[in-house]
Design brief:
Belongs to the UPF0312 family. This protein is mainly beta. The chain has one domain: Beta Barrel (Lipocalin). The chain has one helix and eleven strands; from the N terminus they run ββββββαβββββ. It has an eight-stranded antiparallel barrel. A hairpin with a 2-residue loop joins β8 and β9. The longest helix is centred in the middle third of the chain and has 8 residues.
Length: 175
C-alpha cells in the first residue's frame, strides 16, 4: 500500500443545508487531518481512508452562526471536539466512480454512510509531482447524530432542513 498526502490548500471538506426551505447555506471545516493508503490510486477498492475534522474550525462565513454551530445546540464542540470518518469497504461502480462505505461519528454517535466518489484525474504540478483529484458526495440526516436544533416557521416549514449534503474535494499526492 502506498500512502498519499492531502494537499490541504487545494482541498475542501464542506456541507450545505437548506435554510428556511428557500436557500442553501454552505460551510466548510477549515482544520482536519486525513490518511489515505491504497495500492492503485486509480482503482481505489483496497483503499484505507480516515478523516478527523476539528469541529471548532467550522466556517459558514458568518461569525454568529459559526458560534451557534459549535454550541450545545448543534455540535457541542467543547464535549465533542472531532468528527471522524473511517472507510469500511469500497466498491467500484462504473468507469471512474466508486462507493466509499464507512462509519461517520458525530457527537459520539456512529452511523454507516456512503460517499459516491469520482476520480477526476491526475496532473503534474509545477514541482513535477503527480497530483490526483477526487470528489465525494454524501447525504446524512442530522437528527441521526443528535443535531436536532430547529424552529418552526409561520409558513409551516422549518428553519433548517434535516438533510445535510456533504461534499469533499481532494487533491492528493504520493508521500
Amino acid at each position: 500500500m502506498k500512502k498519499y498526502a492531502i494537499d490541504y490548500s487545494h482541498s475542501t471538506i464542506g456541507f450545505s443545508v437548506r435554510h428556511m426551505m428557500i436557500s442553501q447555506i454552505h460551510g466548510t471545516f477549515e482544520s482536519y487531518h486525513a490518511e489515505l493508503a491504497v495500492s492503485d490510486i486509480v482503482q481505489i477498492q483496497d483503499a484505507k481512508i480516515s478523516f478527523s475534522l476539528i469541529v471548532a474550525s467550522v466556517s459558514t462565513k458568518n461569525f454568529d452562526r459559526d458560534v451557534h454551530l459549535v454550541s450545545p445546540d448543534f455540535f457541542d464542540a467543547d464535549v465533542y471536539p472531532k468528527i471522524h470518518f473511517e472507510s469500511t469497504y469500497i466498491e467500484k461502480l462504473e468507469n471512474n466512480k466508486f462507493a466509499i462505505h464507512g462509519d461517520l461519528t458525530i457527537k459520539n454517535i456512529t452511523k454507516a454512510v456512503v460517499f459516491t466518489t469520482v476520480y477526476i484525474g491526475s496532473s503534474m504540478n509545477p514541482w513535477a509531482q503527480e497530483v490526483h483529484g477526487f470528489q465525494s458526495r454524501s447525504k446524512i440526516d442530522r437528527r441521526d447524530f443528535n443535531l436536532v436544533y430547529n424552529a418552526l416557521l409561520e409558513t409551516g416549514g422549518v428553519l433548517i432542513s434535516d438533510e445535510i449534503d456533504i461534499v469533499v474535494d481532494l487533491e492528493i499526492n504520493l508521500l
